[in-house]
Amino acid sequence: MTTRPSTGRRGARLPDDAPNPTHTTTHAPDRLEHAMTMPTSAPTPSSDPAALRVALLGAGTVGASVARLLGERAELLAARAGRPLELAGVAVRDTGRVRDGVDPALLTDDVEGLVERADLVVEVMGGLEPARGLIERALRRGVPVVTANKQLIAQQGPQLQAVADEHGAGLHYEAAVMAAVPVMAVVGESLAGDEIASISGIVNGSTNYVLDLVARKGVPFEEAVRQAGELGYLEADPTEDLEGLDAAAKIVILARTAWDLPVSMEDVQRQGITGLTDADFEQAAAHGSVIKLVASAWRSAAGGGDRVEVAVRPVALPQDDPLAQAREGTNVLIVEARSAGSLRLQGAGAGGDATASAVLGDIVRAARGR
Ligand SMILES: NC(=O)C1=CN([C@@H]2O[C@H](COP(=O)(O)OP(=O)(O)OC[C@H]3O[C@@H](n4cnc5c(N)ncnc54)[C@H](O)[C@@H]3O)[C@@H](O)[C@H]2O)C=CC1
Ligand SMILES: N[C@@H](CC=O)C(=O)O
């Protein structure tokens, strides 16, 4: 049986800052270089004094959707937030590129200056730095932050939360876990009075897309990865998806929220999908099973202590399992709680507009809290 090619052959293992051909195909408008010279620092637009000035850090798959929807839904958002929301600026690396739905006059590469003049910061640039430093800077000013950055929250969330608490600023990250599916609100707020026993599910859209297309349509693995990139599902570094690091970050955040116990990325027993072979897919099909990348967290008294076990691994599931039926970029989470019983949350786990939905919800939540 053929072993799947290494991650490198898929072009998936890239250094942090390397341009990623798979990923960049998601941003066709980004690639339209314009001859005109853009200002490197955007002028402050004429301001409604009552408006909440929103700084948007990043205008990629998620940022471009957020910018567009902030404009399209301005009236609705103002009514729900209690005051108008004004996009004060959009920080990007290259101000000379035009992005669909983003007013070019708002583009700036002076990201620190933008954070300084904002009433609310939305971080959708990804990566650990400078995102962490910028978020901390805003929080220290008492400015609320909305972020979709699951790696940052998984690795630095408790430290950032401490800064947020110290300065009375909200730190919101519903979009970081399962995009449009409001799992953080359910686990952190709606089930706050219950005892959660376990959490498990499909929390990564791109790997589910790949596994689904390979199994159900016979699409070659590499081609399915390429398509996931085109749909805006992949991280800037796709190894985060394919090696299970993205799912690991999400299950760490969920576990911490559910049990308020220290859980870190190092605690995750992790296996991605790059080691799967054609034989694995054939064998699963022969047994009427479907391979899914499953993330799980459960409370354990092993060793006499009270701890949380976390794992991400490919699992062959029977066809009628609720997780086995998740198609394409769909995510599914099953939460078992003592009084609530078994809850199933399902929906779009990746993509620009789906993630922007959660970001906008957090913006309204943050604005109401100001
Ligand atoms: N794409 C998706 O479906 C989802 C993404 N997320 C998260 O949202 C964040 C953004 O993801 P995407 O929009 O897909 O990424 P992307 O790579 O498409 O966009 C990133 C944007 O940030 C800008 N940027 C990056 N570093 C910068 C810097 N140092 N200074 C100024 N601008 C900078 C880039 O120019 C680009 O506009 C990531 O943390 C990702 O994990 C969360 C849920 C779903
Ligand atoms: N790369 C992520 C995007 C959303 O979090 C995924 O595939 O789920």
UniProtKB/TrEMBL annotation:
One Pfam family this sequence matches: Homoserine_dh
Uppermost EC category: oxidoreductase
Start and end residues of each Homoserine dehydrogenase catalytic domain: 182-364
Residue ranges of domain Aspartate/homoserine dehydrogenase NAD-binding in the record: 58-174
Catalytic activity: L-homoserine + NADP(+) = L-aspartate 4-semialdehyde + NADPH + H(+)
Ranges for region Disordered: 1-31
InterPro entries: Asp/hSer_DH_NAD-bd (IPR005106), HDH_cat (IPR001342), HDH_short (IPR022697), NAD(P)-bd_dom_sf (IPR036291)
SUPFAM superfamilies recorded: Glyceraldehyde-3-phosphate dehydrogenase-like, C-terminal domain, NAD(P)-binding Rossmann-fold domains
This protein's pathway: Amino-acid biosynthesis; L-threonine biosynthesis; L-threonine from L-aspartate: step 3/5; Amino-acid biosynthesis; L-methionine biosynthesis via de novo pathway; L-homoserine from L-aspartate: step 3/3
Gene3D superfamilies found in the cross-reference section: Dihydrodipicolinate Reductase, domain 2, NAD(P)-binding Rossmann-like Domain
Compositional bias segments (type: Low complexity): 17-27
Enzyme Commission code(s) on record: 1.1.1.3
Entry keywords, A to Z: Amino-acid biosynthesis, Methionine biosynthesis, NADP, Oxidoreductase, Threonine biosynthesis
UniProt superkingdom: Bacteria
Assigned protein family: Belongs to the homoserine dehydrogenase family.
Alphabetized NCBIfam families for the sequence: PRK06349.1
Protein name listed in UniProt: Homoserine dehydrogenase
Organism: Ornithinimicrobium pekingense
Taxonomic path: Bacteria, Bacillati, Actinomycetota, Actinomycetes, Micrococcales
